[in-house]
Give the backbone structure.
Amino acid sequence: MKVAIIEPLQLPKEVVMEEFSSLNCEVEMFDTKPGSQKEVVERTRDADIMVVVNYPVRAEALEKLENLRMIAVSFTGYDHIDIDKCRELGITVCNVPEYSTSSVAELVFGMIISAKRKLIECDMTVRSGKDNKGLLGSEIYGKTMGVIGTGKIGKRVCEIALAFGMNVMAYSRTRKRELEEKGVRYVPLEELLKMSDVVTIHVPLSKETEGMIGERELAMMKDGAIIVNTARGKIIDTASLAKMLESGKIVACLDVFDIEPPLPENHPLRNAKNAVLAPHVGYYTEEALMRRLKVTVDNIRAYINDSPKNVVS
């Protein structure tokens, strides 16, 4: 059985290979991302199992990989994999759920506090020898947090917001009684957008959620409200968001975009005003990456033992 790790798992090579050695498989590991679907094929041509993080794997590549039987997605999201083609070809796809729950939830509040207390501007001010003039901030205590999606990450965000003394409302397909018992109030999306001082998104990208926050929804938000996206960039319409930021109506804290960073120079959000930007680091902590690695290997082991788990296709 051969395993091809076609892009870096963002941990030292010796750590990754030690973990994979427990599988007793032939393992080939690449330390750069593929440059094309052709390169995906070249790296995986004679492998039974492909390991990928967030590099796209399209139908054109899958059709040429006759030996491929499993794709181990070392990531929670899997919208970058052509799932329909995998089903057609009988390729099992497994992901790594929940590994970065705490990491992402903590980043949400790091970005909110950075925006509220103008920390980026504060840093630049001190380094240029100036005082605190023009750096008046505001608290999050007593403010209203609107959480879109109360899965594992959204639930943790609700809990942290409550600990900060925020009022929390949520919009989700399913309600969590344990959150309601703690004081979270579930409301329609429009009410959440109109009433929240901070809106944070925690839903997966799908046909239903792509573009769910567009110009109409952004216009509903309070003047000066913050929108946070650590989920998937395409959930918010990029052009509409750029327009709203330029107008000064809202502030954005973004860890994800409609494409993976680095953003091209002409991207509408690269130089956006009223925004705190991060290059997709929500999951990027030592603890989360080690959890991700271990679950990835466990997923492969389970597949080899004919008892696959975390199967998404």
User: Anything to note?
Assistant: The CA atoms of residues 27 and 72 lie 13 Å apart. The longest strand covers residues 144-148. The chain has two domains: 2-99+286-304, 101-277. The longest helix spans residues 286-304.
